[in-house]
Design goal:
This protein is mainly α and 158 residues long. It has a domain of 82 residues. The chain has seven helices and no strands. α1 crosses α7 and α4 packs across α7. The protein is elongated, with a radius of gyration of 18 Å.
Length: 158
């Protein structure tokens, strides 16, 4: 049995930031990035550099999307599941030297993590990734998620 860890606000930043790169989830992100980073014309590049809807003018910044409590609840639940799966497979990977076996374990971990996210009621993989990205850029959202994680862990411990 693996020890239960308390996820603190500081650990959440590291955990959430690392999740997309965890195991082969990075492969999904990489394929998305390849699609998004196809060669662009100079005009397309400058259009993307310009803020949309006036954001950036006179110190304004683009706002992160708002997530309701049920989305944050679902995300926090998925983070706990994904973290447990990641930790389990990380421990298993430490004892494996063969690259083929490592890759097989990584693929198994990816499948389990994706399944955990997709089986979380009220959460899709796209939602998970969007909340993950937003939390890495929005301290208030990050704190809200961290608070919910702490509450969930306290409930589980009690």
């Amino acid at each position: 049995m693996f020890p239960t860890r308390k996820i603190t606000a500081g650990a959440l930043v590291a955990t959430v930031a690392a999740l997309p790169a965890t195991f082969a989830l990075a492969q999904d992100a990489e394929s998305d990035m390849q699609t998004q980073t196809q060669p662009q014309t100079e005009t397309q590049q400058s259009d993307q550099a310009m803020p949309q809807n006036g954001a950036g003018e006179m110190g304004e910044t683009a706002e992160a999307p708002d997530f309701d409590d049920s989305q944050i609840e679902a995300f926090a639940s998925a983070v706990i599941e994904v973290t447990e799966i990641r930790d389990q497979y990380a421990a298993e990977l430490q004892g494996v030297d063969d690259e083929a076996q490592q890759q097989e374990l990584i693929e198994q971990a990816n499948t389990e993590m994706r399944g955990a996210i997709e089986s979380t009621e009220g959460l899709t993989m796209d939602d998970y990734m969007a909340i993950n990205r937003a939390a890495s850029m929005d301290e208030e959202l990050n704190q809200k998620i961290a608070q919910r994680l702490e509450e969930m862990q306290t409930e589980d411990a009690g």
